Each structure stands twice: as structure tokens, then as C-alpha cells.
Amino acid sequence: MSVAESPAAKLERARRVLAGLRQLYPDARTELEYEGPFELLVATILSAQATDRSVNAATPALFGRYPNALAMAQATPEDLEPYIRSIGLYRSKAKHLVRTARVLLEQHGGAVPNDFGAVLKLPGVGRKTANVVLSNAFGRAAIAVDTHVGRLARRLEFSAHHDPDKVEKDLEALLPQDAWVFAHHALILHGRRVCTARNPDCAACLLSPLCPSSRV
Fold first, then answer.
1. How far apart are CA 114 and CA 108, in angstroms?
2. Burial class, 167, CB count within 10 angstroms (exposed 0-12 / middle 13-18 / buried 19+)
3. Which residues are catalytic?
4. CA-to-CA distance for 132 and 147, rounded, in angstroms?
């Protein structure tokens, strides 16, 4: 696990890390609560720079009032704001949600399209959000790189990049495609519970023997 680690050795270490993640988080999945692609899209847009817990606390009332793109497209951002006021950047997110709902209604019959390029063009949607929606709602093989995934990828020396798109490509090159969705969920959980940003608990980490950044 040195700077001179060979590509073959890194692939083998990635395989062992993946096995460790499967042991730790066999049922890893998104912690956002949703029913159907539209609710997942909305929740994921809201989750940017916010906790899943805060999103899950706000969305039941929001979805009760605006259950689909048709209902949300008829609202104004000001209508949505009281439902999501507890979430960071709620004003800009309310604008994104209304605009996204209107695009879905006008261009996609009110449904979230099973198409990466089309989802990526929706207001408030970046590559990470598109990957989350397509992988969870439609089973698309994808690695959604958030702050946790990026941090762990660098600590594990699976990527040297801070650009999420480059981290995504590095991880895709190391992990089997059928493990991409599981891996990004498991890395997120590990980043939240063990390998935190400020105080990683290396002593309690099953992956420490495989991690170049381990403090153990």
C-alpha cells in the first residue's frame, strides 16, 4: 500500500475492501425515504449539503401536499418553502424543485425518465444526483460520489482526485460493475459511522489493515 503499489495489487486490495464492506453493511442502501422515482429525485435534490435525516423529516408533509410532478409544477417556490425550511439552502432548492417538476411535465409526461442525460439536464441535478436516482430507481450501475465517498476513496488511495467525476471514474476502474451501487452506499455508511471527516475511528475499523491512511 505504498506509492509504488502496482495496479494488480491495488485491484486486489479493492476486492478485499469490497468484501469488508459487504461484511459490515450487507444491506447497504440509500437512507433517504421515498416511494417511486419522483420522490427519490426530490429527496436527492433536497439532500445536497443537508443530512438525510433532515430531508426525511421534511418530505412526508411535502409529498402529502405535492405527491407528483403535476401537483408540484402548479406550485410556486414560495408554496414549497414552508415544507422544507428546516433544510439548508431551502429557497434555491424550492426553485429547483418547481422548475424540475415543470420540465418533467412538459418534456417527460410527468415521469422521471430512465435516461442519464435527460435527468442530468433537470434543474438542480448534478452528476451525483442523477447517479443516485438512476441507480436506485432504475437499477443503473453507477457510483454516486458525495463527500463521504470522495473522502474514503482518497484515504484508501483509490483516487488522488477531489473532482467527483474523476473519483467516480477511478472507483469504476477498480470495482466490478455489479458492485457499484452497493459500494457507494456502503462507503457512505462507513464515512458516516466510522471513517468520519474529523475523527476517523481507525482502531474500530475493519478496513484499517487495508487502508494506507490508517492511524493504527
1. 10
2. buried
3. 128, 146
4. 14
